[in-house]
Design goal:
The chain has one domain. About 80% of the residues lie in helices and about 0% in strands. It is globular, with a radius of gyration of 20 Å.
Length: about 325
Amino acid sequence: MMSMSPHRSAPPKSRRWRDWALLGGLLVLVGAGLTGLASATGWAETWAQMRALHLWQVAALLALSLSNYVLRGARWHLLARRLGLQTGLFQNLRHYLGGFAMSVTPGRVGELVRMRWLRRETGWPVERSAPLVLMDRAGDLAVMALILALSISLAAGGIAGAVPVVILALAAAIVATRPRLLSALITLSHRAVGRFSRLFARARGAARLLSRFSHGPTMALALALGSAGWMAEGVSFHLLLVWMGADIGLWKAVAIFVFATLAGGLTGAPGGLGGAEAAMVALLSLEGIPLEVSVPATAVIRLTTLWFAIGIGLMVFPLAERLSLKAQG
């Protein structure tokens, strides 16, 4: 079994401080924006909407979010086994959920800690486990694009700017899941840069391993798990709006939630902070939802999805780190 020093695999302190500083700045901006909107519409109305939610309703929102993470964790397990990793279900769930602790890093690159745990526990180098991360990200992009396209077609009225987002998400998913296409793009990038030959060679090797996932039943099940997971969070947003007296219909609510999540992700900001909230408030306002409802609804759904996931990750992360170090010996 290959060993890997935890000190070598951990990011430099300067990078960690930079990531946390960026996160802190974004949180301040998001908080200031939501606070400004709330104060502009009246604190009494905003807080009244949040206080009107019952404990069982919040629990229902969290349960739907948890089902999303568990279903996507099951997809991670499916893909890991297809790649050839001899890891168990609970082991893979531990890696997947623990990785959410790093969702607040720019571009969510901190979630690559999952590959570090896999290297410690299985001896697989990063370039061999990298296709698993690519397929997980591509799977999310694909199902979210499909859900967005479906919800727009079924909702009363469309969403401005949704079609380009759908196209971009599907294009990224296609590139990330086509070994030859991805390898060709890596080669073109190498020629343009003209340096880092070893790094690009490893990237091409990882791209070729994507062929392991070219299995119809595996892809069908992976798409089904991802679709069910993301739909659960879309439904939770719909329920939240209904409970706040702003029922805009199931498919319009799902479309707004998925669009805002994708739009926030395209900014590259940690967890889509700023972009997702702004898109959600703006789209709800276009549907005639007053700010005293759209602002608290946005705050609540982000707390019960993004921040709930981070909370789960922070609880699981120490266990995943400890068990990976134990396996490493």
